[in-house]
Amino acid sequence: MSDPIVVALANQKGGVGKSTTAINLAASLAFQDQRVLLIDLDPQGNASSGLGIDRASIDISIYDVLLKESPLEDAVEPTSVLNLFVVPATIDLAGAEIELVSMFSRETRLKSAIEEVASDYDVVLIDCPPSLGLLTVNALTAADEVMIPIQCEYYALEGLSQLLRNVELVSSNLNTGLKVGGVVLTMFDGRTKLSKEVAEQVREYFGDVAYRTVIPRSVRLSEAPSYGEPIEAFDPMSRGAIAYRHLGKEFLQRRSE
Predict the structure, then answer these.
(1) Which whole number is the average pLDDT over 200-213?
(2) Between 160 and 128, where is the model more confident?
(3) Where are the beta strands (DSSP E) in 178-253?
(4) What local confidence, expressed as pLDDT, does residue 1 receive?
(5) Cβ atoms of residues 87 and 75 within 8 Å
(6) Between the chain's N and C termini, which has fewer beta carbons within 10 Å?
C-alpha cells in the first residue's frame, strides 16, 4: 500500500457539519474499498459516538497517544463498517491543549504517531476541534491537506481568514507541503436565496478548491449519529447518503488526477 493521504477537517466555528462530514466521508470511502482511519481529535467525541463507539468503555484513546505516547495502533477501534477504523476521543482530551504546552515536540506528536501506522491505510481523516489551538496545530502538522466544511448560512465566511492564516503559518513553519485541498458546502437548502448566495460566494473565493458536491440540510443526516451509524448504513437512499457518496467519489477522483 502506498502512503495514505492525510486530511484534516478543520473550521474553528462549531456546528458547520465537520464531524458529520468526517464520519460520512470516511464511510463513503470505506464503501468504495478504501481502508480508512478516522482520528477523532475533538474532545466532544462526536465522530467516535457517531460511529457507535461507547466512549465509556475505551481503554486507550487519542489522549493517551498524544500525552502518554501510547502507540496509535493500540487506540484503533473497528466500526460496524468494513474497512473503517476510528481512533476515539474521550473527555480527557479537553485538558490536552494545556498539558501539551510544556511538552517536547508538542506540535508534531500526532504526525509521529500517524507515521507508525500509515502503511496500513489508504486515507487518514482527522476530525479537528472547533478551535485553532494546539490540537488543531497537531492535525495541520500531520496532514497533507485541509478540508474545510462551510455551512450555507449567515456569517459562513466569518473567521475563515483566521483559519487560512493558521494554515499558512503551519505550512511555512512546520509542514511545508500543507495546502487547502477542498472546501465542502454543508447544510445547503436549495429553497433559500441565502444558501445559494453563500454557495456563490464560496465558489467565487475558492474557485476549483470548492467541491462540486454540496451536502443538503437533512433530518436523516442529523438522526444517523444517535444510532451510531453513518448515513450510508442508516438510510442509503436518503439525499444525505447520496451526497456523501458523490463527495467520496469526487475526493478519490481528485486524488487520481
Answers:
(1) 93
(2) 128
(3) 179-188, 210-216
(4) 54
(5) yes
(6) C
Nine cell digits for residue 52: 457507535
* Cβ-proximal residues to 128 (8 Å cutoff; 6+ apart), any chain: 8, 9, 10, 11, 18, 41, 42, 135, 136, 139
CA–CA gap between residue 188 and residue 29 (Å, rounded): 22
Residues 6+ apart with CB under 8 A from 228: 49, 50, 51, 52, 53, 80
Q: Which residue has the cell 488526477?
A: 257
**Residues in the chain, overall count:** 257
pLDDT digits (tens, 9 = 90+) for 95-104: 888 888 888 8
Q: What's the whole-number mean pLDDT along residues 176-193?
A: 93
Grid cell for residue 171: 505550512
The H or E element containing residue 75 is helix 72-75
Task: Indicate whether 175 pLDDT > 60.
Answer: yes
C-alpha cell at 236: 442509503
Q: How far apart are CA 105 and CA 218, in angstroms?
A: 42
